[in-house]
Amino acid sequence: MAEEQNVLRLPAERLYAKELEAIKSADRDARPTGWQLSPKGVLTFLTGGKAGGVSITPKYIGNKRLVEMAIATLLTDRALLLIGEPGTAKSWLSENLAAAIHGDSSKVVQGTAGTGEEHIRYSWNYAMLLAQGPSDAALIKSPICRAMESGTLARFEEISRCASEVQDALISILSEKTISVPELGREIPAVRGFSVIATANTRDRGVNDMSAALKRRFNILVLPSPSDLETEVDIVRKRVGEISASYELQAELPEDEAVRKVVTVFRELRSGMTLDGKEKVKPTSGVISTAEAISLLTGSMALAASFGNGSVTEEDLAAGLQGAIVKDDEKDRLVWKEYLENVMKKRGSSWRSLYNACSEING
Predict the structure, then answer these.
(1) What is the DSSP letter of 280?
(2) pTM of the predicted structure, to 2 decimals
(3) Kind of pairing, strands 49-51 and 54-56?
(4) Strand 153-157 relative to strand 108-110: parallel, antiparallel, unpaired?
């Protein structure tokens, strides 16, 4: 336990270990081969509820049917692809699905421009390869290969960031459920329970579009942005509370009004329209997602704890908003200034101090 307290970020299966144990003890439904919970137990873990008197916190706040479809997909031989805007909890849902189903969310391939085919299949310890030739000891198995051997889930984050030929290395794995190792003259077959959960960012379309052949191997679920202000406020408030507790920030949680203001600004700049639909707003060059709102408020708490009296002020929020919104200095500074003058300034006394703080920083 002392070691866990010093870990910056615990995986979901350790962070929510007590909840998983409570669901496991109370779960009376049939469990698929290799699963530690029944499908209904997985759903309870993800969407919240009760298990043997223990309150289960919701991990995903949104359309429950989408979560049911994701779980049902993983009961079949189909892989799952979660698509959505940045900050729609794709990675969070992927991690918690793996934690609930197998108690292990660690088998991850992070897609980048530098991800190679060896990250999906296998590579070699070249010192041992030169000394002994091809052998099991020299073989370095990818997270996907290890998931196949153990009959568990592998996660492929930001798959569209990888080159197309690297993505297509998945086609034979998802179709044949084996990895061929010609150097050893054998194949590594997938054990029942193996599957892949991939995520893709809609803002990355056109970077490395997935081939039609690869898409056919996935069931695709589109995760929407929070449908309304109240839902997004709930998500942000919940995650800020969890993250600030793990960081042990010596500051009070932001007041509901502060959370609501930040979410309002983000939603309006994302949609290009004020919430009442009466005025158009110029969008910024970058995406300002729910995840960034959470980061902004957590950062504001850190400012308040280190350089204030522990209460998040309008000045703390303004500093965070400036960093989140003004990414491309020239364009975004003008967009932000226009929003401040045409929208925020006109909202009356309740927004006046935040307007003044933002205007002062934006210059």
Answers:
(1) B
(2) 0.87
(3) antiparallel
(4) parallel
